[in-house]
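REQUEST FORM: STRUCTURE PREDICTION
Request ID: SP-0412
Submitted by: Lab K.M.
Chain count: 1
Length (residues): 361
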Amino acid sequence: MSENKHNYVVIMAGGVGSRFWPYSRESRPKQFQDILGVGKTMIQMTAERFEPVCPKENIFVVTSQAYKDITLEQLPFLSEDQVLCEPMRRNTAPCIAYASYKIGLKDPHANIVVAPADHVILDVPEFQLRVEKALHYAASNDVLITLGIRPNRPDTGYGYIQALNNERLEVLYKVKTFTEKPNEELARAFVLSGDFVWNAGIFVWNAKSIKHAFKTYLDDVDHLFSSVEDKFYTSEESHAIDEIYHQCRDISIDYGIMEHADNVYVMRTDFGWSDLGTWKSLYEQAPKNEEENVLQGNVMAYETFNSIVKTPSDRLVVVQGLENYIVAEYDNVLMICNKDHEQRVKQFLKNAKEQKGEKYI
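STATUS: Completed
RESULT:
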């Protein structure tokens, strides 16, 4: 364990997963749910994935104050100092700054991997191998590493990273461009070119490199978190974070730093990754029966094909004559939606809040 004592993991777990409504709710977002029906929640699976990478005391979770108790309940090995509570959502740059500056104060030689709490990784050993290689390289080099997934289809729901094949550091390729969610024609061209990978939103660097990057590209964010470093690991931390978050701008790490820095490298990988951001992505990942249905719950299906039904196990659900549908029930909401129109889920959620009230959110 001594060889990885400087390795740290930051799990980002503050989102509400609105595209997974009604299963993902403000009181219990998808990262705290057993979305895959395997007996473990998404955040538990994420933490478990990093067990060989670093000691458990080096795992930090950044989440909302509202999810502090459920985080400690689902990951009981965490101390309260390892759960970083954001007073409000300010996107990934402030979230990562909070964790990185706090870890850097504890261990100036820290090597840090940042990962969302709600991703699916099918080939865990390959994932662990790649992360450990990236951490090893980041330990002695001033680089900002992002993990890129080799695309197997022109998916318009993911961001893309273009690598420079002629500029390589061992298993890393220098990044040329980032492109957010292209249209289908552009996505097809990206996949055919062979130069692009999906942006997995998983990052690796050392504490010194990421702090220098904040100082260079997001100096206002750097100033705020540097000003409260002496409050970390004290009773004043929560109040100090509350004060600076109100001044912090809402900006992603990709837009704020990764798209501008000249030391960004991508590691091309393929470990069965999905960000599990939508009902369709869950359908694609989950086991299917002979009719290509994903049935989770106490479900009886007749003449039903290419559909996903996820309902409570204490309620018998009978469906007939559906093709290409989502049937999702949780607590007090039942949603039935064509799978090809799943992008409307956020609209359904917004309308439900406005027209029916907070109890359905």
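NOTES: The first strand starts at residue 7 and ends at 12.
Reviewed by: T.R.
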